[in-house]
Here is the input.
Amino acid sequence: MLHPQARALIDLMAARGVPPTHTLTPEEARRLYRERRVFTQPEPPPLARVEDLAAPGPGGAIPLRLYAPVPREAGPLPVLVYYHGGGWVIGDLDTHDVLCRQLALGAGCAVVAVDYRLAPEHRFPAAVDDCIAATAWVAQQAGALGLDASRVAVGGDSAGGNLAAVVALHARDAGGLPPIALQLLIYPATDQRRTAPSHAANGEGYLLTKQSMDYYHDHYLGDARHDSDWRASPLLHEDLAGLPPALVITAGYDPLRDEGLQYAQRLTEAGNRATLVNFERMVHGFALMGKALDEADAAIALCVYALRRALATAG
Here is the structure.
């Protein structure tokens, strides 16, 4: 059954007339996503170091934000490179600021958030190219940034989970450069065909709808012929062997639930270490909603544990 807090949040949004994403222009959707985060996200925890940076990318400078729980003088820190969610259309450094702070503080690592180019202004594979370029730059500049290039993890939620999986595949195919210690995949989109059973079961009434998913897909990919490209649908890559350990978190009332399950299963079948945790009573996006949903804290704690474990043994 749906968690009572999730039910209350859905009912509140309906009562307040929050418009469905697919009825908005990308600019309107981005603005509302930024504005409404204050109602569901906890207060941002203070950190010793927060710096805005930029990495060179194929489309120009890529904005980054570095979070660290200790000053630079404390020595090189392991790092999580994080790609925000938002259907490749919405989301930015500010919408995921609290989550990145929570992960850095809890895991005792640095987090570098990537503000990749968004669709429809920049369609596929712009986001992929930016995330690959930013991750390589972080590894290359690790010494100057006070980071440990031998202890790098990648992660993201929703569209960001998709991008994290793709970056891990790209790094493997590039000879393990940079070496990735963990892929943190929070309700990831892994198959752009959108045909898994959970799309039908959870496509209406649970925040992320089928119409909104179509909206994101069409803005990002534009052409269904891209659906089978593994850079859009990592589940469809023919070879998932030799990848970093993964923590895959899903939500029971999420259209993307089965895509996460299927990806975790294929990772394990290919010989990788992959842990799947399904929050049965939750909805898509819940990990960012700790002010409204108690189980968000449990999800963050799982991520923190996985990061600490993987980054402690890497290098």
The chain is about 40% helix and 20% strand.
